[in-house]
Design brief:
By secondary structure, the protein is α+β, with helices and mostly antiparallel strands. It has helices at residues 4-19, 79-88, 101-108, 133-142, 157-175, 203-227, 253-256, and strands spanning 29-33, 39-42, 58-61, 67-70, 94-98, 128-129, 187-191, 195-200, 230-231, 251-252.
Length: 263
């Protein structure tokens, strides 16, 4: 079996993410770029198996998605997004995709995730990429267009169409230009009504980034409960948020919900 130490490491990370309530049966995927450029990725059925993972539950892909070794299932329908991110971000060493509950609350509204904790400041912007999944799928099924689907993914062309036709251009526009940021910190973004992605330089960092992302999402929602609907990205020290009389300016949820500056 190829890459057994890397498989063991990835299995431990999956167990950690499961223990911290980040992964759930709704889906998700974890991948790592190997030293030779190939990709080790979790299999799609792992979510249905409640993430009870063994070292065989991964697939080894070439950078173009061709299967190099299949000991379990195939990669999820989001495999093209993982491969696109590795192509666009040369320093990316690992990717975590999860339907984490608090982050998903922001994604469900198409909102960027606010940085309300110091641990989230290292991300920079955390945008939400938008696509009308139902419409894209329906239009594809009614009038299919050719799609270059990687060999190593579950063959669900209508689902892959959302990633390839709707999200790939946004990744090129929003995420790819930030490649140099990976010199200093990881990246994160969400997909509308879907879930979150974190991208880091190595696997441990990328898992930690997902926990940071979920932490700031949870804290922002708790802030709104404590304040009656206001989220404070930085309540005390960010001077540009202060009014002329010295009072701290805030972001009411009612106005925050109207923002569409994430893409």
């Amino acid at each position: 079996m190829l890459y057994e130490p890397e498989r063991q490491h990835l299995a431990r990370i999956v167990d950690d993410l499961l223990a911290w309530d980040v992964l759930n049966p709704a889906g998700g995927a974890v991948s790592v770029r190997l030293p030779d450029g190939n990709v080790l990725m979790s299999c799609t059925r792992l979510a249905f198996d409640r993430w009870k993972v063994s070292v065989r539950d991964f697939v080894v892909l070439a950078p173009d998605g061709a299967i190099l070794e299949q000991t379990g299932g195939l990669g999820a329908s989001g495999t093209p997004t993982h491969l696109d991110l590795y192509r666009m971000l040369p320093r990316a060493g690992a990717i975590v995709h999860a339907h984490a509950p608090y982050t998903l609350a922001f994604a469900s509204l198409g909102l960027p995730v606010p940085s309300v904790t110091n641990r989230a400041d290292t991300f920079g912007e955390i945008p939400c990429l938008h696509a009308d999944d139902s419409t894209v799928k329906a239009e594809f099924l009614a009038d299919p267009v050719p799609l270059d689907l990687p060999e190593g993914m579950v063959q669900r062309p209508d689902v892959a169409a959302v990633n390839l036709l709707a999200y790939r251009p946004q990744l090129e526009e929003v995420i790819a230009p930030r490649a140099d940021e990976l010199k200093r910190h990881g990246l994160a973004f969400t997909l509308y009504r879907h879930g979150a992605f974190t991208v880091g330089r190595h696997l441990e960092e990328t898992a930690d980034l997902m926990l940071r992302l979920e932490e700031t999402s949870r804290t922002a929602l708790l802030q709104a409960q404590l304040t009656g609907g206001t989220i404070y990205p930085n309540r005390l020290y960010r001077t540009e948020q202060r009014s002329q009389d010295g009072a701290t300016m805030t972001t009411p949820v009612s106005s925050y919900l109207t923002r569409r500056d994430s893409i």
